[in-house]
Amino acid sequence: MGAGRVHAYGAAVGLIGDLLFGDPRRGHPVAAFGRAAGAVERVLWRDHRGWGALHTVVCAGGAVALGAVAARAVRTSAPAAVGLTAVATWAVVGGTSLAREAQAIGRALAAGDVDAARARLPRLCGRDPQALDADGIARAVVESVAENTSDAVVGALVWGAIGGVPGLLGFRAVNTLDAMVGHKSARYRCYGWASARLDDVAGWPGARLTAALAAVAGDDPRGAVTAWRADAAKHPSPNAGPVEASFAGALGVRLGGTLSYGGRVEHRPVLNGAGRGVETRDIERAVRLSRRVGWLALGVCVAARHIVKGRTS
To answer: What is the distance between the alpha carbons of residues 2 and 10, in angstroms, rounded to a whole number?
Structure first.
C-alpha cells in the first residue's frame, strides 16, 4: 500500500473516531504534552526571547521527533501505519469537542439561562463572560468556532498531509504552546514570542484553506469571499482574520467589535459590516458549517498528498 493510501485511510479513520468519540475525558495525549511543556518551562523560563525559543524547539521538536520515530517503527506494515495515522489524527483534531461545547452554550442561551452560558464560555474561549449579554456570548461562540475550525481541525489535516504523523504531532504541539505561552502577558511577552510566531507560520496554510472552504460550503459564497477580501487584514491575527471574516460572510452575520480579555478591553474592527448581528440560532449554523469544512478539508488534503506522492514516486 502506497504512502498516499496509508495517509488517506488513517486520516479518514481518525476523523471518524473524533466524530464518534470526541476527546477522552481523562488521559488525553495533548494534556500530557501540556504537562511536559509546563515542566520544561519551569526549568527554562527566563524573561528572554532566546530562552523562550529554546523552550519552543525542545517541546515542538520533541513532538516531531516522537512522531518520526513512531512512523519509522511501523513503516514496513501498512495496517500498523494506517493505525498510527488514525490514532495520531484522532489525538490532534478536536472538531467534535468544539461542536459539543458550542452547542451546550447555545442550548443554555436558547433556554434563557444566560448565567449557565456565561459559566460554560471559558471552556471554549478566553473572553470575560461577565461582560457579555446573550448576543455577545453568541458572537463569541461563533468567532471561536470559526477560529478553532482552523486550529483544531483543518490546520492539523494540512500538516498531516504535508508531514505525516510527525506533521500532525508537530502542528498540535506548536498550537498548544501558543495557547500556553504565546499570549502577551507580562510573563510571556518575551518568553512566548517564538511560540506565537511559529504558530502564526504553522497556521497560515490551514487558515487560508479554512476560509476558502467556508466560502464553498457556506450559505453565501459570494458574501464570504467579499468579507474575506475586505476585512481579513483588519484583524490583529494574521490567521484568525481570514477565517472569521469568511465565516461571517458565509453565515451573513457581523463579527468583531468590542470584546474583553482578562479585564483588558479591545476594540476590534467589524468583520462583514453588512451582515446582521449574531443570534443564538447562529451557533448551530456555525457548527454545521465547521463540520462541512472539516470533511471537505480531509478530501482536499488527501487528494493533494496523493497527487504529490504520485508525481514523486
So the answer is: 12
Is pTM beyond 0.90? Reply is yes
C-alpha to C-alpha distances, 291 to 213, 223, 236, 298, nearest whole angstrom: 11, 20, 26, 11
Tens digit of each residue's pLDDT (9 = 90 or more) over 234-267: 998 999 999 999 999 999 999 988 776 655 667 7
Can you read off the three cell numbers belonging to residue 196? 506565537
Tell me the one-letter amino acid at 265.
V
Helix (H, G, I), strand (E, B) or coil at 257: strand
Q: What is the mean pLDDT of the chain?
A: 93
How many other CB atoms are found less than 10 A from the CB of residue 174? Answer: 25
Do residues 190 and 49 make contact, with C-beta atoms less than 8 angstroms apart? yes
pLDDT at 6 over 70: yes
Nearest-angstrom CA–CA distance, 186 and 189: 6
CA 168/CA 11 separation, integer angstroms: 10
Q: Specify the long-range contacts of residues 307-311, CB closer than 8 Å, at least 24 apart.
A: 309/2, 309/3, 309/4, 310/4
Cell of 130: 461577565
What pLDDT shows up at residue 260? 61
